[in-house]
Amino acid sequence: MCEPMKIAIASDHAALDLKAELREWLIELGHEVADLGPDTAESVDYPDYGYKIADVVAEGTVERGVALCGSGLGISIAANRNPAVRCAMVSEPLSATFARSHNDANMIAMGARIIGPEMAKACIAAFLNTEFEGGRHQRRVDKLSNPS
Amino acid sequence: MCEPMKIAIASDHAALDLKAELREWLIELGHEVADLGPDTAESVDYPDYGYKIADVVAEGTVERGVALCGSGLGISIAANRNPAVRCAMVSEPLSATFARSHNDANMIAMGARIIGPEMAKACIAAFLNTEFEGGRHQRRVDKLSNPS
Fold first, then answer.
1. Shortest Cα distance, chain B CAs vs residue A87, angstroms
2. Per-residue pLDDT tens for A82-99?
3. Contact A66, B129 (CB under 8 A)
4. B78: chain A residues, CB-CB within 8 Å
5. Whole-structure pTM over 0.95, yes or no?
6. Minimal C-alpha gap between B21 and chain A (Å)
7. Bridge partner list, A68
């Protein structure tokens, strides 16, 4: 497994239980985890939490972000509004591996209504343990920070 | 099936064959399809095509966009830089259904190295045939157009 990292995690109400399970698992693995909420099951709007976690990833306060909502789609769209964020919406580990090796992803998004906690852990493990390949991929990643 | 729509499709070199197959299938279904390229197998950068298709979707030149690359991740991140675009990265039809019913997605992204052409068609069918639910989802979708 990779060296301990600073990792932020955030969700909406639909993914509250998955967030709690993944947070505890990441802490057990030795990572420093910032849980950006929500803290209760009250209904919230996923864009608020998507923007919040994107901000701390973009600022460099944390090295990686894990974003969760019902499908994973809404919070990933919100996070990718930030040009410093590369948030990969995944539901299996192969895509999480490509997200790192080709896209240098600094965030991962998953859906609590789509995949279970063990699949989510397998995706995060691939996301944390895969290095960016650089080379021709660097030019493309650079273009993601400079939308026309 | 839904009424005929104006649909744009774009990819990178890794998804050229999938793009051709989906383009012909959409035309057979009666849709008007704008193929934004690429036209050859020469290596290209997915952000260029992601920004290009996002522009025509945002302008309203087309009603929907279909974006493809190796994993689907890179081109979906690029498309979502445009605050008028809601591009759903999917690999199965249930998520494509949520993308429409909850997120009012106007674009879908898929990975040619991750899913095959029949799965991609099932995702597009769900994407084209599902209505947005509105209600509480509208407020969240509105927030996606106004990143903080």
1. 7
2. 999 999 999 999 999 999
3. no
4. 143-144, 147
5. yes
6. 22
7. A110
